[in-house]
Amino acid sequence: MINIHEKTLQDIEFYSVLQHVAELCITDLGRVQALKIKPFTTRELVLQSLEFTNEYVSSFANDNRIPNHGFEPITKEIKLLHIENSYLDTKSFKKIASINLTVSDIVKFLKKFDDYYPSLFKLSSNLELVKHIVTEIDATIDRFGDVKDNASDTLYQLRQQINSVRGKINQSFTSALNTYHNLDYLDDIRESVVENKRVLAVKAMYRRKVKGSIMGSSKTGSIVYVQPEQTFQYARELNNLEFEESEEVDKILRNLTEFVRPYTLLFQQYQEFLMHLDVVYAKAKYAQSINAIRPEINTNKTYEAKDAYHPLLYLSNKLEGKKTFPQSIILNPKNRIIVISGPNAGGKSITLKTIGLLQVMIQSGLLIPVHEKSNICLFDRIISDIGDNQSIENHLSTYSYRLKQMNFFLRKCNKNTLFLIDEFGTGSDPELGGALAETFLEEFYHREAYGIITTHYSNLKVLANELPFMQNANMMFDEKSLEPMFNLILGQAGSSFTFEVAQKNGIPYSLINRAKKKIERGKVRFDATIAKLQKERSKLEKTERSLKENEKKKQSEADKLEEVNAKVQKKLENFQELYDSNQRLIYLGQKFNDISEKYFDNKKKQELMAELFKLVQIENSKRKKVSAKQKRAEKAKEAQVKKEAEKKVAVIRQKKKSAKQKEAKVEKPKPILKVGDRVRMHDGRAIGSIDSIEKGKAIVNYGIFTTNVNTDLLELVEAKK
Q1: Which of 275, 452, 455, 514 has its CA 20 to 30 A from that of 508?
Q2: What angle do CA 588, 686, 678 make, to 5 degrees?
Q3: Residues 243, 247, 250, 251: what is their CA dihedral angle, to the nearest 10 degrees?
Q4: Is the pTM of this model over 0.85?
Q5: Do 493 and 343 touch, CB atoms closer than 8 A?
Q6: Percent of the chain beyond pLDDT 70?
């Protein structure tokens, strides 16, 4: 049975976290419920609540968002339904219909996506959906919150009559208005409204000539307001009909109330479900704001919180643009108690509160801001002594209060307890208080309790070093500036840097030296040794970080080189394939040229066809049968390689062209080409002879074919002799 002490919740500022969670709820009932969150009493309830929150967080990141769960409270309606002969108004029925529809949408959604949200689906699967309630309400009440005309035959007839009488009222009033206006009995304003009724504005001198009831007069008395007699009669008839309509509406609402009354308990379940869902939603939003996760929960009494952030400090620093330093704590059966030492303002108390707050949060179903590889166990009891230890109300001194707390700890502490004590042993004579604190700590140790304490007492640091399942820890300080580094180091006690900090703050060295002489030399040497070790530890930490950074850089560069090498190798393979393909095409071209020459000489078509067929058969025997998809892939690959090769060739050609242009500037004047000269193209290898030259163009004969080329593109190979 899990039971977290109330004082612990106050010490670690758990209620401040609940305030943040409550602000994220979207309903008033949800906000009230969020402020009542307490650690769960059983492990099963803790795990179930964590699953609810974790599933809701996952819904923010996928396309299957959980439908809106907002609702208007129906607490008043539920109370009325419990009272016999009471009935609800139309607004209440609309709220009941709305909450029914909301629950129905969510239950159907969770049923559809039960693979995504198994825990939430299980929570909703016990709810019974009653469709005919919404159908009945919609059949009786319209979307504006009025009872529909066809809710009953009697109501329909009454409203027909009411509309008819209203028409007669308007008709009779208009008739009287026109008649008396023509007789000039009315004032310029002609009509007005008194007590929500249309009246004639009659001149005072003609009031006796107008038939009807006098409803009042103007301030000056010059106008008398009269309701025409015929209109008055119809108005009385209308009042009677409206009274009957009101009675019929009440009757319909009473019948509808009796129809829904048997489902009162179900409505209460609906509201509680949506209220619970609102709290889960707020927990999920809060988890999102502090980058919280659901860590691994174990049963082997191992507590390993990696990179743990204090959620309140994290949000506060985030708003101010400051950095928050995480802490890592490990507790297990072989390392049950940690004694944190070091100078004040180094972050000892914050570390203590961080661990306590995160543990209470996880046991209340809230996700916590730790590394995903963290592994957390649950405790039956968490007790603490943090903060101001004076009790003005009970007239207790700090030390008396401490003793009462220690007495409480001794009564409650066992192997399933986590205790958190700040400034352990203070409040009394350092020697005597330290001895008593050491005795208490030994007792907690022998009871196999888990705990974290902060202290300045050397004897507690020594005890932590001597006992096998207890460990020292310290908050790192910069050895040069003596500024806190907010980094917890396990395995070594911390110096209080008493004299160093005093010197940094301007205390004269002579006074510090006199203070050193007043205490035992052994203690000074012990503290100095710890301070020296801490400084060395700080240097080693920096060196280790630097080495790790260098290692990362080298690994990154090696990975890049390997990637470049792989790309180069791939390109070489592709170019080799392209080269082989081009060589094969050149070979085919040569073979085709030989066959063409042979046919040119002997003109034997049959022999030509046989040679060509033989060539095709040889080539096809080398081909592998591939699918159309593979062909397309190979062609695409070949096209890509060709494109890359062409780009590289284009660059090379451009370089050659630039080099030739430079040479051309230095070379002798270009020779004049004549008929019979042997020439070739600038970028070509084939040599031909000029048959004729006309208007800057030459016809060049290559033997098999002739071509018409611009003379600027030709270069002289051999002049005609």
Answers
A1: 455
A2: 155
A3: -160
A4: no
A5: no
A6: 85
